[in-house]
Automatic annotation (TrEMBL):
Recorded family membership: Belongs to the MurCDEF family. MurF subfamily.
Pathway of action: Cell wall biogenesis; peptidoglycan biosynthesis
Catalysed reaction, written as an equation: D-alanyl-D-alanine + UDP-N-acetyl-alpha-D-muramoyl-L-alanyl-gamma-D-glutamyl-meso-2,6-diaminopimelate + ATP = UDP-N-acetyl-alpha-D-muramoyl-L-alanyl-gamma-D-glutamyl-meso-2,6-diaminopimeloyl-D-alanyl-D-alanine + ADP + phosphate + H(+)
Binding site for ATP: G103, S104, S105, G106, K107, T108, T109
Main localisation: cytoplasm
PANTHER family to which the protein is assigned, alphabetical: UDP-N-ACETYLMURAMOYL-TRIPEPTIDE--D-ALANYL-D-ALANINE LIGASE (PTHR43024:SF1)
Function: Involved in cell wall formation. Catalyzes the final step in the synthesis of UDP-N-acetylmuramoyl-pentapeptide, the precursor of murein.
HAMAP family: MurF
InterPro entries named among the record's database cross-references: Mur-like_cat_sf (IPR036565), Mur_ligase_C (IPR004101), Mur_ligase_C_dom_sf (IPR036615), Mur_ligase_cen (IPR013221), MurCDEF_CellWall_CoF430Synth (IPR051046), MurE/MurF_N (IPR035911), UDP-N-AcMur_synth (IPR005863)
Organism: Leptospira levettii
Annotated protein name in UniProt: UDP-N-acetylmuramoyl-tripeptide--D-alanyl-D-alanine ligase
Record bears the keyword Cell cycle: yes
Enzyme Commission number, as recorded: 6.3.2.10
Length: 442
C-alpha cells in the first residue's frame, strides 16, 4: 500500500505522527524504535483513527493485527529512514526557499532571528523549526508542515554523531544554508574539532544546485570550508563579525547593547557580546534576500530569548536561567553575559557538567575554571563529578554532590539581590534549581 502523495488535494494521508496519542483523521502512523518499540502501539494508533501505518518487514507485531488492519500496513526496511524519505518526497512537491542552519551553538537564536526577519510574510507563508526539533525526527516534521502556500522554511539541524548533518541536508534539500560557528560540542563522538568542522560543513552536500552557504569571517577552519564549497559549486557568503562596519556596539547596557547601524541607534535587549555574531548573520541573510533595513532593525529590537536561554527572572535573587544546555563555548558566552548584567553586584555561577566531551572533559572544564579565575569576581557552585577540575581552577569555587546542596547553600549564604547564572547540559536538569530559587522569598 503506497500513500498517494502525488495528489496534494486528495491524498490518502495528510498527516504523519510518531505518537499513537496524537492521531487525527487521514494520519499515517510511523512507529520508531527508541526505549520502546513504536510497533507496539500500532493497534492503539489504528483505534485512534490512523488511516495506515509504516511497518518494518516481517515484524512480529503483524500477527497480532486483524487481516483488515494488516492491509493498512506500508512495509519498509527501517521506519526512521522511511520517515526521512517520506518527508523528502513531500518537500519536493513544493518549491519553497529552505534555509538550513547548523553550528555548535547559536542555532536557535539564529533560527528565531531569521523567523523574525521573514515575519512580514503571511503566517501561512513561513515554516520555522519548532522548539529544538532539529534531528532525524524533528527535521522531517518541519518539512511535513510545508504546503502550497509556503514560501520560506527556516530549518534548524543538529547532530551528535558523524554523518547526521549530511543525512538531514539530503532530506531537506535546502536552497540556502548557514553555519553559526565551530565549537567543541559533541567532541566525545566526533573526536576532534576538525571532524566537527567537517561534519557541520556537510550541510552543503544536500544543497540544491546554485546553493548558498553563509558563514562568519571568524569561523574556525574557514579556509577548509571555502575549499569544500568551491568543490561542491556552492556560493559562499562570508559576513563580517569581528570588524563589522555596518553594525557596531555604541554602548554596553545592563540588559544588552545600543548598536549603531550606520547613523541610527537600535537596541538589542540580550546581554553577552557573543550573540551579536548571530545578529550579523541575520543581517547577511536579509541583505542577500533584499529585505528592507527597517525589517532587519525591527527584528533586532523585538527579539526575545526562548525558554531556558538567558531568561532574566527577578525575585529575591535575580536568576539568569540558561539551563537548557551547555558546551564550553556557550558556557563562556553565558558567563560573559552574566558579568555584563550584574554590573558589580554579587554574582554566583551555578554550573553543571558539560556532557559529551569524552577524553577532553577535564581540559574543557579546567578551561572554564581558569576563565572564571580571570574575572576576580563571584562564586562558583558546581554539580556533577566532571566539574571538579573546574572548581580546582577557581579560588572561589565549591563542589556539591547534589543539586539540593547547592539550593540550600544559596538560600542560606547568598545575599538578596545577587545575580545567579544557572547553566548545564540538558541531562543535568539544572532547571530544577531555577524552579526552587524562583519561588524563594527569603
Amino acid at each position: 500500500m503506497k500513500p498517494d502523495w502525488e495528489n496534494p488535494k486528495n491524498p490518502k494521508f495528510r498527516w504523519i505522527s510518531t505518537s499513537s496519542r496524537e492521531i487525527k483523521k487521514d494520519t499515517v502512523f510511523v512507529p520508531l524504535r527508541a526505549e520502546r518499540d513504536g510497533h507496539q502501539f500500532i493497534a492503539d494508533a489504528l483505534k485512534a483513527g490512523a488511516s495506515g501505518f509504516l511497518c518494518e518487514k516481517n515484524h512480529p507485531i503483524l500477527k497480532t493485527l486483524s487481516k483488515e488492519d494488516q492491509k493498512k500496513a506500508i512495509f519498509v526496511k527501517d521506519t526512521l529512514v522511511a520517515l526521512g524519505k517520506l518527508s523528502n518526497f513531500h518537500r519536493n512537491r513544493f518549491n519553497p526557499t529552505i534555509i538550513a542552519i547548523t553550528g555548535s551553538s547559536g542555532k536557535t537564536t539564529t533560527k528565531d532571528l531569521l523567523g523574525g526577519l521573514f515575519s512580514y510574510m503571511d503566517s501561512n507563508s513561513i515554516v520555522i523549526t519548532e522548539k529544538n526539533y532539529n534531528n532525524e525526527i524533528g527535521v522531517p516534521f518541519t518539512l511535513f508542515r510545508i504546503t502550497e502556500l509556503t514560501r520560506v522554511v527556516i530549518c534548524e539541524m543538529g547532530m551528535n554523531h558523524r554523518g547526521e548533518i549530511e543525512r538531514l541536508s539530503k532530506i531537506a534539500e535546502p536552497t540556502h544554508s548557514l553555519i553559526t560557528n565551530i565549537g567543541s560540542a559533541h567532541i566525545e563522538n566526533l573526536k576532534s574539532r576538525e571532524n566537527i568542522a567537517e561534519e557541520k560543513s556537510d550541510i552543503i552536500l544536500g544543497l540544491r544546485s546554485s546553493g548558498v552557504l553563509f558563514v562568519p569571517d571568524d569561523l574556525d577552519f574557514l579556509d577548509r570550508i571555502k575549499q569544500k564549497s568551491k568543490k561542491q559549486n556552492v556560493k559562499l557568503v562570508v559576513w563580517k563579525h569581528a570588524k563589522n562596519p555596518e553594525l557596531k556596539i555604541n554602548s554596553i547596557e545592563k540588559n544588552g547593547f545600543k548598536l549603531q547601524w550606520k547613523k541610527e541607534i537600535i537596541h538589542w535587549k540580550i546581554p553577552g557580546s557573543k550573540l551579536l555574531c548571530n545578529v550579523r548573520g541575520m543581517i547577511a541573510v536579509g541583505s542577500f534576500f533584499g529585505i528592507p533595513e527597517y525589517q532587519m532593525k525591527r527584528t533586532i529590537q523585538s527579539y526575545k530569548s526562548p525558554n531556558k536561554r538567558l531568561n532574566i527572572k527577578k525575585g529575591y535573587f535575580t536568576i539568569i536561567d540558561d539551563s537548557y544546555n551547555a558546551n564550553p563555548e556557550s558556557v563562556l558566552s553565558s558567563i560573559d553575559a552574566s558579568l555584563q548584567y550584574a554590573q558589580g553586584k554579587e554574582i554566583v555561577w551555578v554550573l553543571g557538567t558539560m556532557k559529551e566531551l569524552g577524553k577532553f572533559s577535564k581540559y574543557y572544564h579546567e578551561k572554564v575554571g581558569k576563565e572564571l579565575e580571570k574575572t576576580s569576581k563571584g562564586t562558583l557552585l558546581a554539580f556533577g563529578e566532571d566539574t571538579i577540575p573546574m572548581v580546582k581552577q577557581f579560588s572561589r569555587g565549591k563542589y556539591f554532590q547534589d543539586k539540593q546542596g547547592i539550593i540550600s547553600y544559596i538560600k542560606n549564604e547568598i545575599p538578596k539581590g545577587a545575580v545567579i547564572l544557572i547553566k548545564g547540559s540538558r541531562s543535568m536538569k539544572m532547571e530544577e534549581i531555577t524552579s526552587e530559587l524562583e519561588s524563594f522569598k527569603g
